[in-house]
Design brief:
single chain; alpha+beta; four-stranded antiparallel sheet; 4 strands; elongated
Length: 122
C-alpha cells in the first residue's frame, strides 16, 4: 500500500516494526531456553558423577523440568560455595516438588557452567 506520495504507508511500517519486535523477542526467548536446558544438563551430570541419582530422589525426568533462575550472588548463597569464588551471577536450579518441604538447589557458575555448590533439601 502506497500513500499519495508513492511511499509505504504508516500502517505497513508499524506492522513491519511489530513483526520485527516479535522476531527479536522470540529469538531471545529461544536462546534463554537453550541456555537453561544446558544448565539443567550440567546439574544432571553433577548428580550422576556424585552418585546422587542412586538415592531415589533424583531422576532425569524430574530434573529435565527443573526451575532455572539467573540471580546475583547474594550473601545467603555464599556459605554454600568456595570462599575463592569470584563470580557475580549464578544459576539456581531446583525442583518444584509439592511433596517436599525444600527441594535441593544447585548453584551453577554463569560463565563456565559448572556446579559450584548445592543447598541440601529436606
Amino acid at each position: 500500500m502506497l500513500n499519495k506520495e508513492g511511499g509505504v504507508s504508516l500502517v505497513i511500517k508499524k506492522a513491519l516494526f511489530f513483526i520485527l519486535i516479535i522476531f527479536v523477542l522470540s529469538a531471545c526467548s529461544q536462546q534463554k531456553s537453550g541456555e537453561y536446558e544446558n544448565v539443567r544438563e550440567v546439574v544432571w551430570d553433577y548428580i550422576e558423577a556424585e552418585g546422587l541419582d542412586k538415592t531415589g530422589f533424583y531422576n532425569k525426568v524430574m530434573w529435565d523440568r527443573a526451575t532455572v533462575k539467573k540471580v546475583n550472588l547474594e550473601d545467603k548463597f555464599k556459605k554454600f560455595i568456595d570462599d575463592t569464588y569470584g563470580g557475580e551471577k549464578i544459576f539456581l536450579v531446583s525442583l518444584d516438588d509439592k511433596d517436599v518441604v525444600a527441594s535441593p538447589t544447585f548453584l551453577v557458575d554463569e560463565d563456565i557452567k559448572e556446579v559450584i555448590g548445592n543447598i541440601p533439601g529436606e
